[in-house]
Request: fold
Amino acid sequence: MNYYLLGYPVGHSVSPAMHNAAFKELGLLHRYSLLETEPEKLGETVQGLKENKFGGANVTTPHKIEIIKHMDTLAASAKRIGAVNTIENHEGQLIGHNTDAIGGIKAITLKYGELTESRVVLLGAGGAARALAQELAPKVSELVILNRSPDKAEKLARILPGNTVGAGLGEQQVVKTADIVINATSVGMTPNTSTSPIDAGYLRQGQLVYDIVYNPIKTKLMQDAEKAGAETLGGLWMLVYQGVESFKIWTDREPSAETMYNAALRVLEAWH
Ligand code: ATR
Reply:
């Protein structure tokens, strides 16, 4: 079976390496490849895939919302988030799923344990932050969303359940008392590797600091967190676990997250 990544552009992606390594390890004769798809050709491309009996696909920027109209049904995850990153081809019926946030939360849970008693500070209110916030809000004991534009954080917090508040990055002293700090902004991403969204003085031992940025592998925020004695988790794990969840939807098999991580890491290292 053939699996694809639909995006535009898709030149730089670790997904083929990740999925092909897992297919190989499990002895599955599948192939995952990049399928660069211009926005105006999205419908035509999906129709073509359907006719050729593809196994499934991942969907990335800029198609995650637009793809919805080409799906036959949406899984609860995609409905909740309002975006699709995984297409399941179920006997010709296309089902849209979203594994981004579920994968991200799984990466945190495996490192931290259950989230029910935790106080979480989430930085950002863009697409990635919104998806994570929706999964976190009903699970954690307190969620504080901080964003450069405070109104976006406040608006997001208002529509979420649980003990959830939104504010500006100027309120970042709340990080001091947080159990988990998550960066879901693009601050610190290559080429701006010397920047961090949080003042290092607020980080402390006993915290988990999770940066969804995966390029570089170790961001300035993670370096600051390590120096402060906090635990860290890099964004490549979020990418790997969204891949693990997509893989399970497509094959009903559990791939090795380690295998996928190592394959992705090799690709990232080769870029530098
Ligand atoms: P994504 O889909 O990756 O989440 P996005 O929707 O463009 O991307 O969101 C980017 C996030 O990073 C936003 O929260 C943005 O803050 P604003 O809402 O104020 O724009 C945040 N961000 C980007 N550059 C930033 C910077 N230099 N300082 C602080 N926050 C920044």
Residues 236-251 form the longest helix (16 residues). The mean pLDDT is 96. The longest strand covers residues 2-7.
